[in-house]
Amino acid sequence: MPRRRTLLVIIGIAVLVFGFFCLNYTKGRTEQHFAFAAAHHLPPPSEPIFFGGILALAAGAAAVGYAIGTQPRRKP
Predict the structure, then answer these.
(1) CA 51 – CA 72 distance, rounded (Å)
(2) Which of 53, 54, 56, 69 has an alpha carbon within 20 to 30 A of 76's alpha carbon?
(3) DSSP letter, residue 64
(4) H or E stretch including 67?
(5) CB 50 within 8 A of CB 26
(6) DSSP assignment of 16-61, as one string?
(7) CA distance 29 to 55
(8) Buried-exposed string 5-33: b where 16+ CB fall within 10 A, e elsewhere
(9) Which H or E run contains 15?
(10) How far apart are CA 28 and CA 37, in angstroms?
(11) For the segment 3-45, what is each residue's pLDDT rounded down to a tens digit?
């Protein structure tokens, strides 16, 4: 795989992991997550974080899928 496609897969996987953690952070809005946020000076679980996680998952999946699914161009 060319260097650019490999980099796109790595970035896509990182964005996927970030999106997963955003969704996990907002899941159920348990008191444990609110306490963790207060103790570490982070924003509390909220809808913008949830929707950001959804967008990050979609963008990461699109990047990985594009990088894996496209054929490299052949020089004539």
Answers:
(1) 33
(2) 69
(3) H
(4) helix 47-69
(5) yes
(6) HHHHHHHHHHHGGG-HHHHHHHHHTT-PPP-HHHHHHHHHHHHHHH
(7) 19
(8) eeebbeebeebbebbeebbebbeeeeeeb
(9) helix 3-26
(10) 14
(11) 888 999 999 999 999 999 998 888 866 788 888 888 999 888 8
